[in-house]
Design brief:
The chain is of the alpha/beta class. The chain is elongated, with a radius of gyration of 26 Å. The protein contains 19 helices and 13 strands. Helix 12 runs antiparallel to helix 15 and helix 12 packs across helix 16. The strands form three sheets. A six-stranded mixed sheet has the order 1-6-5-2-3-4, with helices on both faces. It has a five-stranded mixed sheet with strand order 9-13-12-10-11, sandwiched between helices. It has a two-stranded antiparallel ribbon with strand order 7-8. The protein has three domains: 217 residues, Rossmann fold, CATH 3.40.50.620; 103 residues, Tyrosyl-Transfer RNA Synthetase (Orthogonal Bundle); 77 residues, Structural Genomics Hypothetical 15.5 Kd Protein In mrcA-pckA Intergenic Region, Chain A (Roll). The model has no long low-confidence stretch (mean pLDDT 92).
Length: 419
């Protein structure tokens, strides 16, 4: 059986680690307790957080016990950003986001058995902590010159950084110390952008209690041009279906670049590496089929949203281009798909026609171009060819009395909502 550390390395999930041999020995000696933390700085987690959750899941499947920390106290401050000071959210907002994120992370791990997961909140050990005790017990272990040397701090010295954000590293380090004392936690995982905070926790455990702890960081997931993966033209790829529909989530993976799709399959899915090698070979032979992207999108949408939403997203992808029945789509999926395709809104009182819809969606530059498209047989309403440019989009022609799929040619598709 493959050692979990070897599997993580083979999947490209190890950017940094403390003493690799010591960590391997610790993992081999028996089940360990480890943790990964999430600050509630938004109402939902995103793709970058998902990588951390799935890494925690891999370690749990190998027999180790996860602690999933949601930062009720660190979320009130926020990790320093290179761009400037964070805006602090209210206590009520952070408390609400703590509940949301705790619910999200709970879906990806098991809570039963000897290595069942535990959700922890760092507000539990900071809310009653006095400033004097914090400075005496924690602050004394942090040399200021080391804190000033941190990249994110040094980059902000000229523009300015508050003492609040400057001190964030002390709070996160204290989390590791507390979890070590309370739960015997000996490993923290996280993204490579958190490496300084994670290793500071390892050092605090050594200085405060004379114990050895470990750290492991995953790489920053990027696109081929080096920009952060998980950002789209419309914004961040969220895990919450209220912020990003399952269809839009599915499409974000379908759009993965050819040069990166195999990397994402290794890092984000639980497909065995031998099978991924077969997928890669097929992809290299016929990249135009985008079979690797379709597999990636299906796997990830199932992991995050379930099989039913994956099936609906796949059906919508086919139906918009006439390869499946539009009538079989749930209205929520149809609406999400059309919004993702740039749907326009038209007023029923204006009695819009197919020409108006082609122009409103941007599928035609002008009404004359729209009429020409209809005349040449290249305009479609709900996958049916339209021959009359004056066809009015009445409610009986609409899906769910509201939506219309508008297509020009084989590949250009959008939609309208009419109310």
């Amino acid at each position: 059986m493959t050692h979990v550390l070897d599997d993580l390395e083979a999947r490209g999930l190890v950017a940094h680690s403390t003493d690799r041999d010591a960590l391997r020995a610790e993992l081999s000696a028996g089940p360990i307790t480890y943790y990964v933390g999430f600050d509630p700085t938004a109402p939902s987690l995103h793709i970058g957080n998902l990588l951390q959750i799935l890494t925690a899941r891999r370690l749990q499947l190998a027999g180790h016990r996860p602690l999933l920390l949601v930062g009720g106290s660190t979320g009130l401050i926020g990790d320093p950003k290179e761009a400037g000071e964070r805006v602090m959210n209210t206590r009520e907002t952070v408390a609400d986001w703590v509940e949301r994120i705790a619910s999200q992370v709970s879906r990806f791990v098991d809570f039963d058995g000897d290595n069942g997961a535990t959700i922890v909140n760092n507000l539990d050990w900071t809310s009653g902590l006095s400033t004097i005790d914090f400075l005496r017990d924690i602050g004394k272990h942090f040399p200021v010159n080391r804190m000033l040397a941190r990249d994110v701090v040094s980059s902000r010295l000229e523009s300015g950084i508050s003492y609040t954000e400057f001190s964030y590293v002390l709070l996160q380090s204290m989390d590791f110390l507390e979890l070590n004392r309370r739960h015997g936690c000996v490993l923290q995982t996280g993204g490579s952008d958190q490496w300084g905070n994670i290793t500071a926790g390892v050092e605090l455990i050594r200085r405060a209690d004379g114990k050895k702890a470990h750290a492991l960081a995953t790489p920053l997931i990027t696109k081929a041009d080096g920009t952060k993966f998980g950002k789209t033209e419309s914004g961040t790829v969220w895990l919450d279906p209220e912020l990003m529909s399952p269809y839009a989530f599915y499409q974000s993976w379908i759009q993965a670049e050819d040069s990166k799709v195999v990397e994402y399959l290794k890092q984000f899915t639980f497909i065995e590496l031998d099978e991924i090698a077969q997928i890669e070979a097929e992809h290299l032979e016929k990249p135009g089929l985008r079979a690797a992207q379709r597999r990636l999108a299906a796997e990830m949408t199932t992991i995050v949203h379930g099989e039913a939403e994956t099936a609906a997203a796949e059906l919508a992808s086919r139906a918009l281009f006439g390869r499946a029945e539009l009538a079989d789509l749930p209205e929520a999926t149809l609406a999400a798909a059309l919004r993702e395709a740039g749907a326009a809104e038209l007023a029923a009182s204006d009695r819009p026609t197919i020409v108006d819809a082609l122009v409103a969606t941007g599928l035609a530059d002008s009404k004359s171009a729209a009429r020409r498209a209809v005349g040449e047989g290249g305009a479609y309403l709900n996958n049916e060819r339209v021959t009359d440019p004056d066809l009015e989009l009445t409610s009986d022609l609409l899906l769910y009395s509201t939506w219309a799929v508008i297509r020009k040619g084989k590949r250009s598709v959008s939609g309208v909502s009419i109310a």
